[in-house]
């Protein structure tokens, strides 16, 4: 274990060569699935995602890491300083939304890879300080656009999603997660880490802690002019699947009074959902991003609409109250539009605090490095939202200009990315030496 | 020309054998693309539609008709009593909506085929009464679900839609009308009839008149307990394509105030459209049956929504006024949802009366046959909506139980179908003898 005084020394200071190498690699990686408008389209286990993963695997192997995949396609780059010691994991996800941004997730994986590679070189010559081994992680399918739900790889890893259910999940063309990952040869026969789901399996590696760096995907840091956000808590979320059931009819010939128009019902849900958010100010976010009309013909009154919607709040009591209000709203819409609304919980998580010792550790590192910082709460889910429930976890943000995310014009300054890598490197160094 | 007294004699009276043959053929035809719930799915130029067309072609050839296709795949069964005489056309369409009903269109084609086959046998032995030749017609793509717009085959035939544009129309998989019809060998190199679009082409056949029988797709006849509806006018329609343009963003992380949510804008359009209809009582129908969200991911605020919508009214002035109100509504929504709305006319037709002589002729026939009847206005578009603008036209309805249409539970009683065939047969007989 390191002494308190030693923790204030910077182990692996920034250097221009390392910074240039990081930016060059980020440019290389952003070419996988690059879109004309400057974003990326690299949905989980598509050709673009697989090519990017292959590139990362080579990068890791070239630097002495061992690459392994678990049974849901999470990808690990392992480096062992001392046999039998637990592992510090660091990473994020490389998959993207359709026409998404190039920073979301991908930045965090590359930052972890560069940070841990710098630590590899440092601790190979300072073995006396080492307490834990290290592993880069690229979580499978964080985005949940091709295969639902989001945070699937870390969800299975942390026991929140069934492995079998995840592998059988189909995309819109009927391809399963199992098929897509098997075809790429990126599905392990065994797991790699003991995440608490396994009993007495000596082959599985123990985990010490987890760290993740991500762009903020909001405008708090950008507005405040701060570089580092230390995530101290998450918003809770309720995600729902809705079916609005009406009756198919001719748009021209059917009198308005006779219609059971599923799309009219669904439209009232979308409008009511926004009004619900407006009634809570900034304490509730509501969204509907996916809505599919059946049969979706110009001259047919829709018989069914399938929707995904979510409620997010920093306050679990508000989520509960809003859920009850939704039920009343749906009952009103059922009468007004003469439709049936079926509501199912798709995925839900309570608001939670992040590991307080992780917040303290990263705050100390950021202060030692003299970087501007503030505490933030994350509205979006991240793989760390899952990981913090099983191991001590650090979650850090760098700014997104104008808060743009899940869009091709998502943008973060190179300088901020570089500072983020330095902060992550130093935080991970202290985690390797036994902090957390 | 026939004398008035002769017009009151029934040429080809109903007989049990003909009725049974009709119902048997209707059952056979309804098997093409039959769905488990009792409907059909036979969208234009799909395998099911093509198989049904092949069946009809054989049926016609077996009875001495000549089968021909024009340059947009309209299908004709020609029978010539006397060279050089114009043709009486009768028919409808055999394509269906996705999971549509088995009566819509298909009944009218089969009724025309049986009626004209009965007339063929009658006039082959009564040549002295013949003024016109006869042709069954099965219009291509009346429904407009696979290839837009609706009434495409009759639209090209009557010069309202460009042949080139129609042939280049793509379905959602990128297959064109030209490709789909060519693959089935159902695209003629030349046209068959002179519909007024051609100048001095001696090979094209002249047209005398047109008759169409269809289910009502509304509940006027069913409510009134009448068997025959004599269509005296159409509702006008404005069909629009809309693009609602927002900005893609993360549903979790993006503050509500920062969103430019295309789906929120589109939902307000759908709700506003219904409110517009409600404000006019029965004088205005509004519908949105097709709405496509881009990118349609659960955690992404939609950047774009593509919609098809229509306004229909018996009163052209109301259509014009409603169009102006829509423009104001869209301007309000653009502000409220921070989106852009682009509105394009996709297709439009004015309210029009049907040929008054056609109304008189069919009324006289129905009275001679002693069948209950009333005048009706059609809200739906039909191929006759196009045909009535170029030749004298008769349009007749039989009841739809509960007004159901464009749905698998569309239903018309066998007895009503039989009466419809008798009325059509007698109406066409008088048209063959020169009425209209």
UniProtKB/TrEMBL annotation, chains A, B:
Name the domain of life.
Bacteria
Cofactors required: Zn(2+)
| A single GO molecular function term of this UniProt record | hydrolase activity, acting on carbon-nitrogen (but not peptide) bonds, in linear amidines
Asked if the Swiss-Prot or TrEMBL record annotates the protein with the keyword Zinc, the reply is yes
Tell me the residue numbers annotated for binding Zn(2+) 2: 104, 143, 406
Keywords of this protein's UniProt record, alphabetized?
A: Hydrolase, Metal-binding, Zinc
Cofactor binding: number and manner: Binds 2 Zn(2+) ions per subunit.
Q: Which SUPFAM superfamilies match?
A: Bacterial exopeptidase dimerisation domain, Zn-dependent exopeptidases
- Any keyword Methyltransferase? no
Residues binding Zn(2+) 1, per UniProt: 93, 104, 214
Record's family? Belongs to the peptidase M20 family.
Protein name in the entry: Zn-dependent hydrolase
- Source lineage: Bacteria, Bacillati, Actinomycetota, Actinomycetes, Mycobacteriales
